[in-house]
Design brief:
Peroxisomal Thiolase, Chain A, domain 1; 2 domains; 11 helices; 33% helix
Length: 331
């Protein structure tokens, strides 16, 4: 028996960032760097940092609640919660289960975390859309949330100046056939995993005095290799997902790349022929918030009234794994 495949679309957005702002000028006081050096190489001027009492689930819960309110949907209507994160509250239970409980979402709803580095939100959005396409769920809550500041070596200027904390969320529901998520592409290259990782804390290197003394619980990055990888895959991934959707570069109304570095975003936009006024950028105010960066930028643009019905939006993520991926949405 033939069953119609449903399109999934975003019907609500929400975001949450910590109150604490850490500026480049403040970083000058704790590491060997300068505000000008950071800004010229990254485009970052400040980032948000969680307090010692805040965890990833705290940001995720607020962002998700705001997305549900924006969509006009009660928590009891949610069928599935997906939290994309590299910084869960703990290894178990899933952060998504903590969010489900705090929001009062029904026990009949599924909840799980998804780990795909900074590409996590694109992966989670794709996975959530497939539950709707299959007819298994009607309402899916997708969240990208991170507290990477807790995983940084604040003596390492090559990493600690880059990252910030935050959360963004969207609500997915079935939408008309010619709208919503039109196409997606997901990729991986595990051979590049050593370029961006947190070595310890899992089953390979459980926490010991040696792993702590060696600072293996902090994020490590080969910045040069990650930069080259990112510049290459943004263009390729965007072009391939546009082709899958039957669209051209000139059809793009808004481009939302992962907010890693303005020196990655601007060259990618030039190669794609997308003017910067169509590129959503907030890396200057939030730094690299990993899985939260794309939904944060989306939420801002939606609530500023920039995104209109019928707009074509391309999202591209890239990060640890190595992973990368892209999505085309008709708003």
């Amino acid at each position: 028996m033939h069953r119609e495949v449903l399109n999934a679309g975003i019907v609500g957005t929400g975001a949450c960032v910590p109150d604490r702002i850490l500026t480049n000028v403040e970083l000058e006081q704790i590491i060997d760097t300068s505000s000008e050096w950071i800004f010229s190489r990254t485009g970052i001027q400040e980032r948000r940092i969680t307090g010692p009492e805040q965890a990833t689930s705290d940001l995720a819960t607020v962002a998700a609640g705001r997305a549900l309110t924006d969509a006009g949907i009660n928590p009891e209507e949610v069928d599935l919660v997906i939290v994309a994160t590299s910084t869960p509250d703990m290894l178990m239970p899933a952060t998504a289960c903590i969010v489900q409980d705090r929001l009062g979402i029904k026990k009949q709803a599924g909840a799980f975390d998804l780990a795909a580095g900074c590409t996590g939100f694109v992966h989670a959005l794709t996975v959530g859309s497939q539950f709707i396409a299959a007819g298994s769920c009607r309402t899916v809550l997708v969240i990208g949330a991170e507290t990477l500041s807790k995983m940084l070596n604040w003596e390492d200027r090559s990493t600690c100046v880059l990252f910030g904390d935050g959360a963004g969320a969207v609500v997915l529901r079935p939408v008309p056939k010619d709208s919503g998520i039109l196409a997606f592409k997901l990729y991986s290259d595990g051979a590049g995993g050593p370029h961006l990782l947190i070595p310890a804390g899992g089953s390979r290197y459980p926490a010991t005095r040696e792993t702590l003394d060696s600072k293996l619980h902090y994020l490590q990055m080969n910045g040069r290799e990650v930069f080259k990888f990112a510049v290459r895959v943004i263009e390729e991934s965007a072009e391939e997902v546009l082709a899958a959707a039957g669209l051209n570069k000139t059809d793009i109304d808004f481009f939302i790349p992962h907010q890693a570095n303005i020196r990655i975003i601007e060259p990618a936009a030039r190669k794609l022929g997308i003017p910067m006024e169509k590129v959503l950028v907030n890396v200057n105010r939030y730094g690299n918030t990993s899985t939260a960066s794309i939904p944060l930028a989306l939420d801002e643009a939606v609530h500023e009234g920039r995104i209109k019905s019928g707009d074509y939006i391309v999202m591209v993520g890239f990060g640890a794994g190595l992973t990368w991926g892209s999505v085309v949405i008709k708003w």
